[in-house]
Amino acid sequence: MKQGPLPSVDSPDDMTGPTDLPSCGPLPTRVGVTGPAPEEPLGVVAVGPAGAERRAVLATLLGLDPVMLTVPAGSWLVVRNAKVPTRAAFVPGYRQPHSYGADRDAAGPALARPPRRVELSVPEPLLRHFTLIDVPDTATLGAAGNRVLLEAVGRAGALLFVIAADQAFTAAELNLLAEVAPTSVEVLFAVTPGAAGWAPLTDGAATTEDAGASVPPAGSGATEATAAAVTVAAHRAALLAAVPALAGARWFPVDDADSAADLRRALVGWSSREGLQRASVNPPVLPGQHDRIAVAADPGDWSERLDRHTRSCAQRIRQHLALELANIHLRAVQEIVFGVGCAGLPDLLDREMAALSLLATAQCDQAVRGIITDVAGRVLGAPPTEGVRRRIATAVQYGLVDDRPGHEVDKVLLITSTAGVAGLTGPEAIDALASYPAPARSEVLPPVAVALSGGCWQQWRTPGNNDHSAARAWSQRAVREVELGLSREVSRRFEVIRLSLGAVLSDAVDHGILLA
Predict the structure, then answer these.
(1) CA pair distance 146, 162, nearest whole angstrom
(2) What is the pLDDT, as a whole number, of residue 102?
(3) Cα-based torsion angle of the residue sequence 121, 124, 130, 135 in order, rounded to the nearest 10 degrees
């Protein structure tokens, strides 16, 4: 199916009437680290290369068997505190999680595809302070996985990077840390012994003071303690040569429960400070949240402004997503031809769809906030305060409920084995696609959610199914169907925003005060 050119936002058909309509502003073009919302729970995201014994470090912190932290390849692990131990896998395409035992010998469920995340709940005092998130190895994340990771790190607030004594930072890992460095995220490093233990002493090695690390207790042996400190110093020097902004990050050699105690105390101290800071920026009552707000004497033709603003924003987002999907198709072809081959196609596309979902969600959220601020400002005679904006947003959310079948905005788009797109509705279905779930959203629209169904894994991981031409054709059709599906969803979302916001502001104009 040949795609015709999308009309420009500035085309004559789209710009009839007044020309003072503000644009949607600079919409985000990629997912990155953003500041956490005040109500966002604290989290520590653990990441690092394969072979660094990251799972053993986390198990030592939690006092668990490392087998308990095992998840399918490519899945995220989210560990929370609870009185009753449970473990559940959240798989795209299902509304309910797949539950399996929380003991070390419990077998995982037989799944057609890897879950986006596995949630483990255990009674552990450390988890009262924060949620612990373990992500796939850095070498398997790819560009899209790194963007999903950065979004999660920004919301969680802390990053724990685990690396072994005999490993070195890769270029991708240094780029990842460089993006985190200028943000408010707390970055900590844990260094574990390599295959041959701690690195031996060398002439001219950095001193313990240069390392800025916590040294294991004297009981572990002075030579071993010094070797660990020198190894940490060498890793720190290599990192700071590429990312000097992380000079304040703390380093911890970890090889047993005693040496992990310093890391544990550092994480608890961070959570105490971060928790107080987040609580202090969220006042119980915002200005204008309960006041009577009068409308402007002459709000002008606000309804036409709303129509044109929603249409303009929807079109810009559709164009952005079409360009991003074109790039995704190119990366899929590169994976087929130069990468793992057909067997690696489902993993890559699913990571790309996860990052695309976050990008589309961020763009829609920002555009809707701009529309409400702009049009409500016309009706009220002044830009609305945050309290007034939230009142309007809450009222608009009530108007999003549509009882007509097929018109829901909380929809999951699933790529099928036939390169089509199937829909699944409901907040539970959307939640199953989150690698790191968010608390109750304060935004008007639900998240955009795109993923691959289990049939895609079954098709392209079948032994002998390594037809590159068929895989390239399949990926092209799948990406095209996602583009069409997302275009329809974006248009539907902004249409319901237009109708619901128009109803709220029309009531305000008719009654002379804001009723939201």
Answers:
(1) 16
(2) 66
(3) -50
Beta-bridge partners for 107: none
Sign of CA dihedral 394, 397, 399, 401: negative
* Chain segment 342-366, per-residue pLDDT in tens: 999 999 999 999 999 999 999 999 9
Amino acid found at 198: W
For the chain, the residue count is: 516
Q: Residue with structure tokens 């790819």?
A: 142
Report the percent of the chain where pLDDT is more than 90.
66
| pLDDT above 70 coverage of the chain, percent | 86
Instruction: Enter the tokens of residue 83.
Output: 């009185």
Buried b (16+ CB within 10 A) or exposed e, 72-107: eebbbbbbbbeeeeebbbbbbbbeebbeeebeeeee
For 377-431, give the DSSP string. Answer: HHHHSSPPPHHHHHHHHHHHHHTT---STT--SSEEEEE-TTS-EEEEESHHHHH
Q: Rg of the Cα trace of the chain?
A: 25
Order of strands across the sheet that contains 421-425: 421-425, 411-415, 449-452
Q: Where are the alpha helices (DSSP H) in 63-162?
A: 138-156
- What is the phi/psi pair of residue 188, to 5°? -130, 150
Q: CA–CA separation, 66 vs 58, rounded Å? A: 8
Residues 6+ apart with CB under 8 A from 135: 45, 46, 47, 76, 77, 141, 145, 149, 152, 435
* pLDDT over 90 (residue 220): no
If we measure between CA atoms, which residue out of 263, 77, 267, 254 comes closest to residue 186? 267
Q: Coil, strand or helix: which one is 273?
A: helix
Mean pLDDT (whole number) for 415-437: 94
Among residues 418, 414, 421, the alpha carbon closest in space to that of 460 is found at 418
Angstrom distance (rounded) from CA 45 to CA 161: 8
